[in-house]
Amino acid sequence: MFARFTEEARRAVVRAGIHALDAGRPALDAGLMLLGVAEVRPFALASFTASAADVRERVGVPDPRALLATLGIDLDEVRRRTATLADDPGAWTLRRSRVRPLRVTLYGPLGEIPLAMHARKVIEVAMWKPGPVTGERLLWGLLADGKNGAARILRDSGVNVRRLVDEAGIPARRAA
After folding, report:
1. Alpha-carbon span 6 to 41, nearest angstrom
2. Sorting pLDDT into bands at 50, 70 and 90, what band is 82?
3. Could you tell me if 8 and 40 are in contact, meaning their C-beta atoms sit under 8 angstroms apart?
4. C-alpha 89, offset from chain centre
5. Residues 30 and 38: beta-carbon distance below 8 Å
6. How far is the C-alpha of 137 from the C-alpha of 10, rounded, in Å?
7. I want to staple 12 with a disulfide (CB 3.0 to 4.6 A). Which of 36, 79, 104, 165 is the partner?
C-alpha cells in the first residue's frame, strides 16, 4: 500500500505508528495519524498552524522527553547514539489482510500495529484518487470523516479549518 505514498506522507504514517507503539496503544487511531502529520508536515500549507505539541496534548500522548529528563536522560541523544531503522520509512510496510480485508496493519522494526477504523478510512480516502498519496491527501483523509475528531483537534489548536480545506484543495462535501 505504501508504494503510492510520497516519502513525506509515508514518514507521517510511520511517525504515527511509532507513537502508537510507544504509547502501548492497541491500534493506530486517527488522532495519532494527525500527530504524525503535525510532526512531519508533509506539505507547505500556511493554514496548518497547529504545532505537534498542541496536537500531542489533545491526543493524550505525553512527551517522554520531560519524564526522562527528570532522570537525567536526554532522549534525543539516546536516539542519536542508537540510530536504528525505526524512523526509516523504507523499513515499514502497510498491508491489508487477505483474509480480513477491513484489517490494515503497519509493520516495522518496532513491531506491528493495526489501524483503527477511522485511521484506515484516512488511508482509504487518501488513496481513493489515482496518483501519489501526498500530505494534502492524508489531510483530506483526516478531514473527510467528521467522526474521527481531527477537525475538532485542529480547531481546538487554533486552526481555521475552513481556510485549511480551501488552501489544501480538499473537495467540498456535496449536499444530498
Report:
1. 12
2. low
3. yes
4. 13
5. no
6. 12
7. 36
pTM score of the predicted model:
0.86
Q: Which CATH superfamily is domain 2-168 in?
A: Clp, N-terminal domain (1.10.1780.10)
pLDDT for 61 equals 80
Which candidate, 53, 50, 11, places its Cα nearest to that of 152? 50
The three three-digit cell numbers of residue 89, written as one number: 520509512
Which amino acid is residue 27, in one-letter code?
A
Cβ-count burial 19-33 (b if 16+ within 10 Å, e if not): bbbeeebebbbbbbb
Three cell numbers at 145?
A: 470523516
Closest CA to 165 of 145, 143, 135: 143
Q: Are 130 and 43 in contact (CB under 8 A)?
A: no
The DSSP annotation for 67-105 comes to HHHHTT--HHHHHHHT--GGG-GGG-EEEE-SSSTT-EE
DSSP string, 114-175: EBPHHHHHHHHHHTSSSS-B-HHHHHHHHHH-TTSSHHHHHHHTT--HHHHHHHHTPPPPPP
Environment class of 98 (CB within 10 Å of its CB; exposed 0-12, middle 13-18, buried 19+):
exposed
52 in Cβ contact with 173 (< 8 Å): no
